[in-house]
């Protein structure tokens, strides 16, 4: 069992300190502290992957992940490793071996996973920022549940070297912070961007069909967006769209998956459900290739819901895998055409409200399926996405997500700073007091 402390809301697996070397002038992340999900290699420590059997059967890392080294070289101090869901195969944030990190803004709710400890460490004020990974939603979900910022970069633009893979077609490095300035600073280091650049958006597209699924809260968020965009950039940038209809019309390969999913479930957003299905199918296939041999040899002790997903992954064949990959190419092209170079797509991050602790497996699975309808948009397109906290509604955190085309990370990173004050002003007026 890893070293644990009771005063950290259960966020940390192990505490240590990796400090930057002295520099002649203050670096960009000077005096900032951060933590890393226990999926990143740190030289001299075993990378635990959220499971004691994994830790037991693997040796200490001999090298540190380049992303971690880059942050230290930029002046930040790494203070430890954080709890994660087993094998990164959940978005709940519960771990039967190491405990569930406490969501500081909603202690009776799950913190979200699989980067649960990293999100809780930031939300609790224990560190200035933290690193996680996001394959299906493992940074975006806990950020939304815990009321903090996160950034999922465009697929492939930040190195995943010395990070345990889950499914390479989707794996990304993500980061958390409590404010837009810090999320931006960290992003500039990891994306190797020059500071001081910002580009104004050319349009904001609000996905009315997606926000409608949140009921009255969705209407509130849409209204908050409209008012804050109008006051900051002008009403001429605002457009409304039925995202599901657009995707179904423009992505031909989706029809194969709509036919499959329509048999399994009745949905008012069939294209997004089908995209979710394709994403999960490809993730299972790649997870099997990465870890199937180890699972079969070790037979690790896994929580029942994790075990069920792993078993399903190990039973996956290559049927439809080529179509999954083709769908990704078509979806990226379709959404790029919709947004253009500097357009922004606004969608819910997850359904609402966050699940309560100790819910049944069937309840959590239902919520998970609904969440992936939104999460699959960036996952299947490879687009960058930022989760922006809006405050509290009925004493629970609320967020919105903004997406931009692949490789428009610099543009999207700087965007919240331009109108976050207006967003929070509108949110506080409409939703009530903020975080």
Automatic annotation (TrEMBL):
Pfam families: Amidase. Residues 23-181 form the Amidase domain. It comes from the Eukaryota. Residues 1-28 are annotated as: Disordered. Residues 1-17 have a biased composition (Basic and acidic residues). GO terms for molecular function: hydrolase activity, acting on carbon-nitrogen (but not peptide) bonds, in linear amides. InterPro entries: Amidase_CS, Amidase_dom, AS_sf. Belongs to the amidase family. PANTHER family: AMIDASE 1. This is Amidase domain-containing protein.
